Amino acid sequence: MKKSVIIAGISAAMLLSMGTGALAATKMQEIKAFLNPEIKVKVDGSPIQLKDAKGNAIVPINYKDSNYVPIRAISDALGVAVDYDNETKTITLGEKVDGTAIAQGFDNMYHTKDPDQTTYKGIDYKEAYFDNGKGSRGGSFMLYPKKEHQKLYLQIAAIGEDIEKMEIRDSDNDIILKQVDVVKVEDGLVTIEADIGGVESLYVHYDIKDNSFAFVPLTTSYYR
């Protein structure tokens, strides 16, 4: 059963646990509801403990004979990204239509805005991860999708020699989400896709030889 079907089957209508911003909505109405600890939730046949955004255990709410479960709790259990736009009062589940560049919040010693290092094959990408270290080495950087995105589209190019043994990992759970044996110089800028639904942080690692470089444009690599 697809995850989207599971979500719909658990509850026809769910409450969002997204923090104080949602509570400031002007059209909210007060209701009388009941916490119902007798309701149990299973995913693929296995019982789960629902938790809020802070990791605290929660129970479903019963209102007018319907059970309501926070979307955040269900999305975490199923590994589906969830995000809330307070300005438009919109909840987004799964992959977004518009991408978010990984340049936002990127922090690494090889992060550069130097045009000499952000330009690849005549195109200046403005911001890049440019690993120009010395010697044969393992390169790595962190990304933080914060469970708000479903997919990662990571662009990377090998310069000088091929990039080998590239991995994208769920850093918190030490799970490999994507493996690429080799990124060849001759292939130019390639795009690697990884499913990152429900993932807080990512660890990207690869091996590279001496006198070689790894180039990642941060403005055209993005989350969705």
UniProtKB/TrEMBL annotation:
InterPro entries: Cu_amine_oxidase-like_N, Mao_N_sf. Residues 1-24 form the signal peptide. Residues 59-94 form the Copper amine oxidase-like N-terminal domain. It comes from the Bacteria. Keywords: Signal. The keyword Signal applies. This is Copper amine oxidase-like N-terminal domain-containing protein. It comes from Paenibacillus oryzae.
